Amino acid sequence: MTAMAKHRVFLTLTLLEIGLLAGLLAQGRTAARRASAVEVPARRAVAQRLGLTDLALWTEARYTRHPSQADLFSAFQDFPSSLDHFPAGSVVVASGGLEAFQNRLTAGEGSARPCAD
């Protein structure tokens, strides 16, 4: 086999593998779309039935898993003056309810409880 023939065999096999990969990716994408069309409504129904809250993005601490249910002091419960030792704590933004509660506290309005009776 000459060098030119080896070259053509290599290019042919490479193009065949690229075509096979593209076909598998397209088939996988189609299968994922079909599966999500069935799974997403079912998952929404389960979340609504169970009363689940927000999406849990991190598994580190409870105030990063469920930001809408965290209190103002959960990040500092171990040591009040400590820095947040979880990386996700610097990415998660406090929910609007917590910010409003903190603004009321700093303004001196109301009690130190975030929930109204």
List key phrases describing it.
single chain, mainly alpha, elongated
Describe the structure.
The protein is mostly helical and 117 residues long. It contains 3 helices and no strands. The protein folds into 2 domains: 1-52; 62-107, no CATH class.
Number of domains: 2
What can be said about the biggest beta sheet? none
Q: What is the number of helices?
A: 3
Strand content: under 5%
Mean pLDDT: 76
SSE arrangement, N to C: HHH
How many E strands? 0
The low-confidence runs, each spanning 5 or more residues with pLDDT under 50, are none
Write the layout of secondary structure elements.
Blueprint: H1 3-50, H2 62-65, H3 96-107
Question: How would you summarize what this structure contains?
Answer:
The chain is mainly alpha-helical and 117 residues long. The chain has helices at 3-50, 62-65, 96-107. It has two domains: 1-52; 62-107, no CATH class.
